[in-house]
């Protein structure tokens, strides 16, 4: 799929991955195939709790393995993420912070992590999911960053990421902004806020975790992309997957294909959409499904391009022919 996407002028078709998945040889052979995947993004191992588990403790071992693999295979890296409200270490969440020392801690984290991977990340998700979950509420999420530092934490994070790696593309990554509504508009305001602060922001990430019944259609996705590229940004589909209600049926798999293809087409039709990343490609290891049913979307699954038995889904062949025949 990467080969086809690149022939059509995109920078990459990529996938999320994690080091524990490298143990499966079939998985690894797909992952290492640059004609299939031209970019990798770690699902967890670049997050704060992993990288800086203690105030003065840094651990890049897991993420380094993914970056080394990408380098070896000639794949781009999407680096994910620097400042988020989830997967934070206990010392940070339970600390007593004032505005000044929390800002210093955040800057320190951003600068050290970006510096460690300087020159190796095509893009950084500098801030992640800064808006409230509810798509009908377009306001900033109340979390430790907003509550203690204030909305300026966002521009400060971008400013220091830019300082630490002048060549990495700096992204704001968000979900439920792929369709029109208050959250989509709120994300545009966030971009303008960063730009008004005179700070560099290069890109917007459309996560695109969809279900057939709620996914926006092709035109709506394209319109939403245009809203952001009109602000001067490049764009990427960053976490594409389409979960379905189990057990599956031929109809559902066909609807799933439509959603995958619409999303790929929206990116293909948007010049400044540089690439697409699926949030893993094998049902067996997906963050949605039996493995994590106690945690996420009980009853949903089969969100990825390959069934657990490695058969390609209609979604896979649909994307393939969309990339070939348009
Ligand atoms: O590492 C612990 C393990 O020690 C423990 O035994 C186990 C029991 O629950 O949990 C393990 O941690 C899990 C972690 O993934 C590592 O596997 C967490 O519970 C689990 O919540 C965490 O889920 C990750 C999720 O982010 C957290 O919100 C998913 O793997 C990851 O795919 C997902 O990725 C996010 C993006 O970063 C941002 N956008 C949404 C996307 C999907 O939620």
TrEMBL record:
The active site is at residue 239. It catalyses: Endohydrolysis of (1->4)-beta-D-xylosidic linkages in xylans. One of its GO terms (biological process) is xylan catabolic process. It is found in: Secreted. One of its GO terms (molecular function) is endo-1,4-beta-xylanase activity. GO terms for cellular component: extracellular region. Residues 1-322 form the GH10 domain. Keywords: Carbohydrate metabolism, Glycosidase, Hydrolase, Polysaccharide degradation, Secreted, Signal, Xylan degradation. It comes from the Eukaryota. Pathway: Glycan degradation; xylan degradation. It holds the Pfam family Glyco_hydro_10. Its EC number is 3.2.1.8. It is an enzyme of class 3 (hydrolase). InterPro entries: GH (IPR017853), GH10 (IPR044846), GH10_AS (IPR031158), GH10_dom (IPR001000). Belongs to the glycosyl hydrolase 10 (cellulase F) family. This is Beta-xylanase.
